[in-house]
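Lab notes, practical 5.
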Amino acid sequence: MRLTCSQKDLATALNITNKAVSPNNTLPVLNNVLLKAEGKRLHFTTTNLEIAISCWIETQVKNEGEITIPSRLFTNYISYLKDEKLDLSVEEGNVLLIKNSDSTTKIKGIPAVEFPPIPTVEREGELVLGVADLKRAIQQVVFAASINSTRPILGGVYFYLEKDHLMLVATDSYRLAEKGVALQKSSGTVHCIVPARTLVELGNVLEAVEKVKTVEVTVSKNQILFVVGEIKLVSRLIEGQFPNYKQIIPKQSKTKVIFDAYAFGQDLKRINLFAKENNNKVIFRIKKDGVTLTTDTTQYGEGEVHISAKVEGDGGEIALNSQYILDVLSNLGSNELLFEISEKSNPVILRPHPSTDYIHIIMPLKI
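Output from the prediction step:
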């Protein structure tokens, strides 16, 4: 393999594919990026056997070939070079030679034949949606997925089609987030659970792209493929049946409260300093003139604050996990937050006001 490419393009591609490299791989080749020079392109692929990320850049290929190189070492080294043309070539003994205007470096690699094959995704369902829309949906949903490995299904985000929208749903059984994303195109069936870790990495990829405006999604029985311009991300799917979450969403509300999102967030952060010592429990006392937030007495003290809010319907009190609410506020995307409350033992619905395409449900705590 012998080629010439720009430092900037090389660094960009390595930073993207490096996201699929896990630090605790026991198989040495999984710490490497597969480089394949073919035609006028240099292809990059990494995998941790759960997800695989690949992309390509335009290069001047003089001799085709392939090799795997330690990804993090290669990425860090290239980041320190000047933005100029680089000459890459493979020497005997699986060594990558990197030359620029003032240096020559050799990095030992592993033969490409030892790199695991990337699965092909058979087409059962296809979608096209906006990069910005999907990125926003991931941010608003993925944090509600469970980090507990005892129930793998809850460690993923449920994808399914509803009319002309892709619905994303995540829950850890204490809270639930649902977001609808408008589709530009769809065909076939989509009914799958995508690992939350996959979507976190996809979100990082979407954050890095600039010119590409759409994401193409292909779903098969066991795999899902996301294509963003020259970038591809393949992931396994989680097997199993996602809970029938629709049945826990309250159909009616007795009380509606509209908060100024920023002011409410600042007040809640103050109260949360004390609530942290009691499992983030905050009591909401709702009256016509607003809402009073209080905490139980902890070893550091207690807190209380009165918040102006628009209150409709019955008053009452309910206890909620303050950190869950702060998570919602961090991803709300609106100036106002709507609380919908039915009974103090029933889930509370939180949504941006006046939007209806995103809801968050939080189970109440005992008072």
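Observations recorded by the TA: The chain has three domains: 2-114, 125-245, 249-362. Residues 261-275 form the longest helix (15 residues).
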